[in-house]
Amino acid sequence: MLLVIIIKLMSEKQIKEINIKLVPCYLLNCKDKNLQFNLLVNVNNAHVVKDIETGTGGCLIRDLKGLTSNEEKILRYVINMDKNKFEAAELFGRVELQFSELYDLMSNLVAKGYCIKEGSKFMLSKNLLFFSNLRELAIYEKVEFKGIKYDVKEEIKYDIKEIVDFISKFVDVLSRRECFLMKYDVVYN
Hints:
alpha+beta
């Protein structure tokens, strides 16, 4: 309740009420390029939470189509490359596929919205750049697990298993833990 008192003291407007809303989330422990970090995923709006006060951040809902296992393998390699643009020939020999098959798979990734082709070079699409930088959305705040009195509990709208399966295409998800984010909704007079 200390935070409620601080909100009242800091407000320039007169506050009618402060409602405590619980937002359903999962804390994912992830690993990418030997770096371990936590992501907080809001399963009410499918965001990787960056702003813990609003429960919002980068939206996981993107217009991306499903991948075959070979497309997934190539995509993981491309995401981990240190180059922005590359030619299909640069992947040849590293992904253990025939060149014609590799080129066809790269064309499929372009058609599905994962990559963009400019001349003979490929690069990640803007939708995918978000997922190649998930560690930038890491949450470092101390997470407290405790009982709390609340006014509203938001519903779970997205399946965490599907979210984890999708995120696992880009980083290794080592563990997940269900939790709730406390959000304060202030109603003014």
